[in-house]
Every structure is written in structure tokens, then in C-alpha cells.
Design goal:
8-stranded antiparallel sheet, alpha+beta, 2 domains, Protein Yojf, Chain: A, Trna Endonuclease, Chain: A, domain 1, 5-stranded mixed sheet, 39% strand, 15 strands, elongated
């Protein structure tokens, strides 16, 4: 990795020059107090707060607070970053604007102070090697059902040969039958509709049946579909699940040796 360029506590003019020089070419980090205004498919505003801004060479924007995994604001690859200095409320401020053309979206970050700016190059040619398959996750959730929700107890897996197996089927803490569809990645409308089919089948047999779509994340379309169908989304914490995969495989190998 090449040596990083770092400036601490730059004034707005120096920070602006730094962003103009490095945005779109290197991985750029900005730390400081800023407001954030988003205009696009919706509108949102964040009042002034200390935030970490990541601008990647491919145009990706990530805005992080000091808590949580998910960014408080973001834009995908393909955006364009510009920087300027403006007078706002009697103060000179750095303005960083990130624009996307399809769809039209714009994120405007107005800094009242920049604590640190850093630019550097990293090279990563390796593809991500997933340590756990969806089948692994299903088995882990069967062994640790509280990771679905507290009080959930799975039954033996039920098979419907016309539609394939339900990933998990059991009852919740109140005894309500519960169908769980598990997804390793972000769940979309296909997984949501599949869960709905399983739940509708079970509701033909039982008066009350819940449906949970368990995944690290869910698309907006799928989330709306779940609400419309009286189904639920369960966010999987892969950071808690993945360390258990080697232990699961070791247990399976031991059972195989003595089975």
C-alpha cells in the first residue's frame, strides 16, 4: 500500500483542495462535524454531528456515525464528487457534493470543521470467500434458535416435495406456528413471495401462522411486500453466526466418525 496523505485540522480552503485532488482517484476519508442533505427519490436531512465520510475511487459514498454497522447515508458506485467553499451563516465552510445521474440523487455535506482528511491507495484482487452456506446457517439457527428470536423452537424440518423444503418450521414463545425462510445475502421479492406461499399453505391448516424472512438485509420492495402480507423480517447477525460455522463442521465430522 502506498504511503497515505494525511492533513489534521485543515481550514476549509485546504480541505477543499485536498478533496478536489484525491476524490475519484484514491480512497478518501474525511472526519469532522457536518450537516447532510439528501435530495432524490425522497428527501432527508441530518443535523450537525461528528461523522466519518468514506469516498471510494469508484464513486461509492458511505457516511458513518460512531455507532452501528450500517451507514447513515450512502450512494452506490458511479457518483461524481465536487468540493467548494461557501459562506454559510457567517462562517466559511467546506461543501462536499456527491451526485448521481440515474436516478437523479444528490448528497450535500456542509462541514463546520474538518478534524482529519486522509487519502491512500489500496489494492485488493481477492474475491470474498464465504465461510457459511445457507444450509450452514439453517443448521446453526436450528442449533441456536434464539438467534431467530427469543423463545423460538424449531420442529423437525418439513418437506413439501411440490414446493421444496421450508428452511425452518416451529413455534414462537407464545406457541404460534412459525415459518422461517433463511437467506445468506440480502433478501428480495423472490424470497418474500416464497415465504408467503409457505405461510398461506400453513394458514389453510392452522388458525394462526407467522412468517419470518431471516436475512442480513432486505430490499425495499420485499420489505413492503412482507408488510402487505402480514409477514415479518428478521435481521440476521452474521458476525455472530459465522464464527460458529467451523464448530458446526467439526461437530458434523465427529458424528460422521462415530456414526
Amino acid at each position: 500500500m502506498a504511503e497515505a496523505d494525511v492533513i489534521a485540522g485543515p481550514d476549509p480552503e485546504d480541505a477543499c483542495c485536498f478533496v478536489r485532488e484525491h476524490a475519484g482517484n484514491r480512497l478518501l476519508q474525511l472526519v469532522g462535524g457536518c450537516t447532510i442533505d439528501y435530495q432524490g427519490r425522497a428527501k432527508s436531512q441530518l443535523a450537525s454531528g461528528e461523522r466519518l465520510i468514506l469516498l471510494k475511487p469508484d464513486g461509492t459514498l458511505l457516511v458513518h456515525s460512531d455507532e452501528g454497522v450500517k451507514p447513515v447515508n450512502w450512494q452506490p458506485p458511479g457518483t461524481t464528487t465536487t468540493a467548494d467553499v461557501r459562506e454559510l451563516d457567517g462562517d466559511t465552510r467546506l461543501i462536499v457534493t456527491v451526485e448521481r445521474s440515474s436516478p437523479d440523487e444528490i448528497v450535500t455535506m456542509a462541514f463546520d470543521r474538518v478534524t482529519m482528511a486522509c487519502a491512500f491507495d489500496i489494492e485488493d484482487w481477492e474475491d470474498l470467500e464465504l465461510l457459511g452456506t445457507e444450509e450452514d446457517i439453517q443448521q446453526l439457527l436450528r442449533l441456536h434458535p434464539d438467534l431467530v428470536e427469543e423463545g423460538f423452537e424449531p420442529y423437525d424440518m418439513e418437506l413439501d416435495r411440490r414446493r421444496g423444503p421450508m428452511d425452518l418450521y416451529g413455534h414462537d414463545v407464545h406457541g404460534t406456528r412459525t415459518v422461517v425462510e433463511v437467506k445468506r445475502r440480502t433478501a428480495g421479492i423472490e424470497e418474500a413471495t416464497q415465504l408467503a406461499r409457505y405461510v398461506e399453505r400453513e394458514r389453510d391448516k392452522h388458525e394462526e401462522v407467522r412468517g419470518l424472512l431471516a436475512a442480513p438485509d432486505v430490499s425495499e420492495t420485499a420489505h413492503k411486500y412482507l408488510r402487505d402480507k402480514d409477514l415479518e423480517f428478521c435481521e440476521l447477525d452474521l458476525d455472530r453466526l459465522m464464527p460458529k460455522v467451523p464448530q458446526l463442521h467439526a461437530t458434523q465430522e465427529t458424528l460422521g466418525d462415530f456414526g
